[in-house]
Structures are given as structure tokens and as C-alpha cells.
Amino acid sequence: MTDPFDTDDIEPAASDAECPRCLKPAALCVCDAVEPIENRIGLLILQHPQEQAKELGTARLTALHLTDAVFKIGLSWPSLAAALGRPADPKRWAVLYLGSMRPQDFPPGRELVVLDRKGVPLPEQEAALAEIEGVVVLDGTWSQAKTLWWRNPWMLKGRRIALKPQRPSLYGKLRREPRREALSTLESAAFLLSRLEGRPEIETALLASFARMLDRYRATQPARPRPDRRRPQQRRGRPRSG
Ligand SMILES: [Zn+2]
Question: Which of 16, 112, 138, 184 could be joined to 145 by an S-S link, Cβ 3.0–4.6 Å?
């Protein structure tokens, strides 16, 4: 049993110095192997402010991998253009769908489906997919993502896009998610962009980085301090220490 007043303010080991690019401890940084990919479909990652403390978060790493990716932390933005920092038509952007869609509800042979405002697949899928200029991915736990959704009404104007992962997240048991199929931000973005652009190499490169980060995490885990225990209300979605 740990003393409840046991301090977490242990001097970090030298190997825990933070990388200025991904903001991860050096032991988890995989930036040296990242070669940015020129993506045609834009990516906007909006991160809930409380997501930032996560060691195994993937939002920054995802953005570092892509030449056209914008990463923002906050709760609300007045418009898509304001969030992106450039003009954009929200009708040509799609937000990764938060609702649940059963695999059997996907049209046959489809890994991606574009939905209307009610969550119903659009009749002309090819045309709807071809119109998409960019995708928005919300980074946080499921409830944090829901908060971002409701705090940014401009998202309601856009399309929604649902994906059908062929396998569960690489996170495995390192993270608990309410839905088994829930992918990390990196995996979701990799899936979306590789399918929308028809370039499987995008997914290959991003997943390789993610796997490398997780390997490093698992390798260093016994020697590293336990995750911060002082904010139990944020435990959901944190890596398990046991
Ligand atoms: Zn780094």
C-alpha cells in the first residue's frame, strides 16, 4: 500500500527530459524516425485541454507526421476557419463520427462511410467521399470528444465520417476505452487519410511510429514513476499501471 501523501514530485531522471516537438519524455520520443508525409486531405486535430497530460497521447505525433495537419488545444472555436487558421468550407470537411455504427450497417465492401446530420449514410458515397477536403479528429476520451462536439456548433454543418476498423487499437490493454473498437487519434487519422487518398503507405508509416512508441513505453514501464495519481477524476482512459 502506498502512503497517500507519498510525493509524486520526484526529480525526473535524465532520460525523462521532455522532447520539445512531441512533448514526451525522451524515453518515449520517436520523433527522430518521423519523416513528414505530404498529405492531400487536410487534418485538423482538436484536443480537449484535459487530454494533455497523457503520456501515451498520439495527437502531436500524428501532426508531426503530416505536412498538412493543424493541432489545436481548447474547448471551442468560432468556426472551422478559425480553428484551422485559414479559409475553409465546413461542408467539405468531415468530422470523425462519435456515434456508434455497427459493422454490419456499413455498405458492403466499405471501410469508410459518409453520414448526413442524422447519422444516416448518404446515397452517393463515392461523390461524397470525393468532395472531402479535410477531416477533423477530436482528441480525448469519448466524453471529452462529446464535449468538443457540442461546444463547436460549426461541426454540425459538416459531414460525418464513420470508419470500420479491421482490428482493435494497438493500445491493447494499455488503455481502457468504453468501446472496444475505439482507435487512438493517430490510428483514426491514419485510417482516414490512407483510405481517402488511396495511399496505404500513410497508415503504414504512422502505425510504425505508434508501435515504436508503445514498445518504448512497455520497455521503460517498470523503471518509470507511476502515472500521476493526484487527479483521480482524470483516470479514465489513462494507461493502467498494473
Ligand atoms: Zn519527440
Answer: 138
Category of 82 on φ-ψ map: left (φ > 0), alpha (ψ -120 to 50) or beta? alpha
Q: Where do runs of H (alpha helix) occur along the chain?
A: 59-64, 80-84, 125-131, 142-151, 185-197, 200-220
> Cα(171) to centroid of ligand 1, in Å?
19
| Of residues 108, 97, 158, the one with CA closest to residue 131 | 158
Q: Which residue shows C-alpha cell 505525433?
A: 61
User: What pLDDT, on the 0 to 100 scale, is given for residue 2?
Assistant: 38
- 47 vs 140: CA distance, rounded Å: 6
Burial status of residue 63 (CB atoms within 10 A of its CB: 0-12, 13-18, 19 or more): buried
Strand order in the sheet with 112-115: 69-73, 42-47, 134-139, 93-96, 159-163, 112-115
- Residue 139 Cα, ligand 1 centroid: separation in angstroms? 18
127-132: long-range pairs with CB below 8 Å, 24+: 128/159, 129/196, 131/92, 131/159, 132/41, 132/92, 132/93, 132/94, 132/159, 132/161, 132/196
Rounded to the nearest angstrom, the distance between the alpha carbon of 114 and the centre of ligand 1 is 34
C-alpha 175/C-alpha 196 separation (Å) is 27
pTM of the complete model: 0.82
pLDDT in tens, 83-106: 999 999 998 999 998 777 777 788
